[in-house]
C-alpha cells in the first residue's frame, strides 16, 4: 500500500490551481474536466509520486469542516521545507499571508500561512 493522492478542500479550483502553481511552485499533474468540477492535482518536485488533489468543497459537510478548522486556526495539511526561513521570505515576497514568523516548537520550526482558498497550511522544518 502506498499514498498516491491526498486531498485538500478548496473554495475555487481555478484560484487554488493558480496559488499552488504560481505562488507555491507546485507542478500541475492532472486537470480533467468532470463537468461542474475538475480532477485537479498538483505535485512538488520533491514528493515523488504523491499528488495533492485540489478538491472542491461543494458538499455541505466539506464546506462546514473547512470553515470550522479555518476559524479555529487549524492547518488543513502540512508541507515540509528544508529551508523554512528562506521559504517563508520567498512566500511573503509573493504576498502570502502568514499567522506569525517561523517559530521553533519541540525541536522543529513551523510557520502557518493562508492559502487564500479557505485553508491554513503549516510549513515544517525538522
Automatic annotation (TrEMBL):
Instruction: Tell me which PROSITE patterns the record gives.
Output: VOC
Question: Where would one find coiled-coil regions in this protein?
Answer: none
Residue stretches making up the VOC domain:
1-126
The record's annotation in InterPro entries points to:
Glyas_Bleomycin-R_OHBP_Dase, Glyas_Fos-R_dOase_dom, VOC_core
Q: Name one Pfam family in it.
A: Glyoxalase
Judging by the UniProt lineage, the source's domain of life is Bacteria
Question: PANTHER family annotated for this entry?
Answer: GLYOXALASE/BLEOMYCIN RESISTANCE PROTEIN/DIOXYGENASE, GLYOXALASE_BLEOMYCIN RESISTANCE PROTEIN_DIOXYGENASE
This one is known as: Glyoxalase
- Which species is the source of this protein? SAR86 cluster bacterium
